[in-house]
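Q: For a teaching handout, I want to show students what a protein-ligand complex looks like in token form. Below are the inputs, and the small molecule is NAP. Please produce the holo structure.
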Amino acid sequence: MKVLAGKTALITGGSDGIGLGIAEAFAQQGANLILVGRDAKKLTQREKELSRYGTDNLVVISQDMAARDAAREIAGKIAEKHIRIDILVNNAGIGRFIPFADSDASVLDFHLDLNVRAPYLLTRMFLNDLIASQGNVINISSYFARRMLTDRPSTAYSLTKAPWNPLPRHLPSSCPGGSRECGRTRHRFHAPGENQYRSAR
Ligand SMILES: NC(=O)c1ccc[n+]([C@@H]2O[C@H](COP(=O)([O-])OP(=O)(O)OC[C@H]3O[C@@H](n4cnc5c(N)ncnc54)[C@H](OP(=O)(O)O)[C@@H]3O)[C@@H](O)[C@H]2O)c1
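A: Here is the structure, written as tokens, with NAP included.
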């Protein structure tokens, strides 16, 4: 029995790296997938590759998540197809290692738009769906949300990954309907690289 059969997962940045790995793992477990990325050609290629897992329903959406209306655009395209989301994976993100003294507003905005604004608004957009489906939100954080290293100046990246650590604990009690109802929307927080760095020290 495939544990995600009948479930639909929306994965931002699902066409490469960690997001693609999650897409493959979910497809193997029978999930329907919606992958979001900017590069339409790459998405079409991934659609073909992932079809080997026998996924019946695979939708790709070409969208720059850093755009102001990204969450609304994606929700509109999904609503047109009458799809309900069970799992939201907020994975698309960027990190530039720039010394604080060399950074400016554009560096901060670049990180804020994709790492904070996009997942914040996408989660808000699908909140009612996720409550209805008793779904899950998976946020991809980072080792750098908790620590900064002198040889890897991650100031803007660290600041924009850090909000995803407390939010999962806070969100259930801040939703309409109170913590009991919203508490069923389980929020998971993942910080890739953390174990690797711990064992390397
Ligand atoms: N790699 C690591 O070592 C590491 C460690 C800790 C945390 N993380 C976090 O894990 C997440 C994924 O990282 P990764 O290294 O797997 O990334 P990656 O290999 O660079 O892949 C990024 C994915 O996101 C998409 N993407 C990038 N910018 C986008 C945008 N503006 N709008 C829509 N989609 C966009 C890319 O597709 P397009 O280019 O076609 O848009 C691609 O599918 C990030 O949140 C990152 O901060 C990564």
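A: Two things your students might notice: The chain has one domain: 8-200. The first strand starts at residue 8 and ends at 12.
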